[in-house]
Write a structure and sequence with these properties.
The structure is a single chain. The chain is of the alpha/beta class and 461 residues long. Helix content is 34%, strand content 14%. It has 12 helices and 15 strands. The chain has helices spanning 7-28, 36-45, 91-98, 141-149, 165-171, 205-215, 255-266, 285-308, 314-322, 328-348, 388-396, 425-438; strands at 31-34, 60-64, 102-107, 127-128, 131-135, 154-159, 174-177, 197-202, 242-244, 275-277, 354-358, 374-375, 378-379, 400-404, 415-419. The strands form 3 sheets. An 11-stranded mixed beta sheet has the order 1-3-2-6-8-7-14-15-11-9-10, sandwiched between helices. Helix 3 links the parallel strand 2 and strand 3 (102-107). Helix 4 (141-149) runs parallel beside helix 5 and helix 8 (285-308) packs across helix 10. The chain is globular, with a radius of gyration of 20 Å. The termini are close together.
């Protein structure tokens, strides 16, 4: 989409988005809160600002309901905060607004972002625009469904174990989990922990790039905030050094997913470069994740469980309880192992420009099934095991772009992770753009898209 040239077009864009939400969200349930008045006001204010420096001028956007929005309800997906209205924007929200994004509302998330389905006591479950009986994925599934259906152009999300990447794969769109610290979070209580990060969902790489450039940049209040490496690699015409893996040697992955990845890799044109099957050593990834994530969740939400107990979702309580009794020694050992894992990934990228892996270990499942407990009939040890294909990359701190692979004759979309070394976000986006244009890894409108519904001038198609 070309950014609106004036306030009139921005207002028309807002009306388009609101019309699509009104027509489709009763079934999709992608939004928890819609802010029609705020979006219209922001569009009107664009007329008083020079548009040239605004990378996202007039872009229809929505914020996952885990991030604070000034004057707009932020529930964190929990009935405990059903009436919570923050006074201030989180930094990422403020930067998106400053860049000209028009925020239409807050998108669905499971309680506090923990859950395989995108539902909570306030709403949901969010349906998948490809099949309304299926899940859009957790936990940024509201943003993913809103982008895929055409309600918005840019979705905000958060990603710890795969919460941006899994929904993007399920809904057939692109996503970006940047290098942790590229999008700073000065409110993070543990300023030196970087497992979780903000991310974006969009229908193409160009929008992801614009969102990153508009919102990136260090903040002194975040001790681990950083900048990306400016030198691009993988420009058009250069052969890339490509590696591919089904499972990093340890992740449980459905046979259908393995087949879709093999098909996607086999279809890559020679212009992109030769593909080798390889991956870093990830043998201890489960042991690391199963200490660090529960410990962090218990620290953040342990007191909440003591106060509210059964009022919390079963999944939130499960994660909190798994963090009980983890010792300082265990935690430090896991951090040391994570450091070694990260260094193995960094060394791996001395030999490769990009690593391809599935963006989800399974295909979308019905919204009536709350958790992934088995894959291809094999029981999983925990309800978090299906996330290994994505949480391994989180542990290593690598940036990831996901793209939908070509559909061919398949009924449902399938996404791939394009992984680069920490700090290589711009180079990785350039590589992703090549996959998009040279290999056809691009968005296709789902059956339940809403592009035919518009008010005024339809500028989103």
């Amino acid at each position: 989409m070309v950014a609106p040239a004036n306030m009139t077009q921005a207002l028309a864009a807002v009306e388009t988005g609101l019309a699509r939400i009104a027509a489709g969200d009763r079934a999709l349930k992608a939004f928890l809160t819609v802010d029609a008045a705020g979006a219209r006001q922001a569009a009107g204010q664009l007329g008083d600002r020079p548009l040239a420096p605004l990378q996202l001028a007039g872009t229809l956007c929505a914020i996952k309901d885990l991030s604070d929005t000034a004057g707009l309800r932020t529930s964190y997906g929990s009935a405990l905060f059903a009436d919570h209205v923050p006074e201030h924007d989180d930094l990422i929200v403020a930067r998106l607004r400053r860049a000209g994004a028009l925020i239409l509302g807050k998108t669905m998330t499971p309680e506090f972002g923990f859950g395989a389905l995108c539902r909570n006591d306030l709403g949901g479950p969010t349906a998948n625009p490809w099949d309304m009986a299926l899940t859009s994925g957790g936990s940024s599934g509201g943003s993913a469904a809103a982008v895929a259906s055409g309600m918005i152009e840019l979705g905000h999300g958060t990603d710890f174990g795969g919460s941006v990447r899994t929904p993007a794969s399920f809904c057939g769109i692109a996503s970006l989990r940047p290098t942790p610290g590229i999008l700073p979070n000065p409110k993070r209580a543990l300023g030196y922990d970087m497992l979780a990060t903000t991310g974006f969902l969009a229908r193409d790489v160009d929008m992801l790039s614009r969102a990153l450039l508009a919102s990136a940049g260090p903040d002194a209040r975040d001790p681990l905030s950083r900048t990306f490496q400016p030198a691009p690699r993988g420009q058009s015409g250069m052969a890339l050094r490509i590696a591919a893996t089904d499972d990093f040697g340890v992740a449980p992955v459905a046979n259908e997913v393995r087949g879709r990845l093999a098909e996607a890799v086999a279809g890559l044109p020679a212009s992109l470069g030769e593909v080798r099957r390889d991956h870093p050593d990830c043998a201890d990834a489960f042991a690391i994740f199963n200490v660090l994530r529960p410990a962090l969740i218990h620290r953040e939400f342990g007191e909440t469980e003591q106060r509210f107990g059964e009022r919390l979702s079963k999944t939130v309580r499960w994660w909190i309880q798994r963090g009980e009794g983890i010792t300082a020694q265990s935690y430090l050992q896991a951090e040391a192992a994570r450091t070694a894992l990260t260094r193995r990934f960094i060394s791996f990228f001395d030999r490769f420009d990009v690593l391809i892996a599935p963006a989800a270990s399974v295909m979308p499942w019905p919204n009536t099934i709350p958790d992934v407990t088995e894959i291809d009939g094999k029981q999983l040890a925990t309800i978090a095991d299906y996330l290994a294909i994505t949480f391994i990359v989180s542990l290593a701190g690598c940036p990831v772009v996901t793209l939908p692979a070509p559909l061919h004759q398949h009924r449902l979309p399938f996404g791939v992770q394009l992984i680069g070394p920490p700090g290589s976000d711009l180079a990785l986006l350039a590589i992703a753009a090549r996959f998009e244009t040279e290999a056809g890894f691009r968005y296709v409108a789902p059956p339940h898209a809403l592009f035919h519904i518009f008010a005024g001038e339809d500028i989103s198609t």
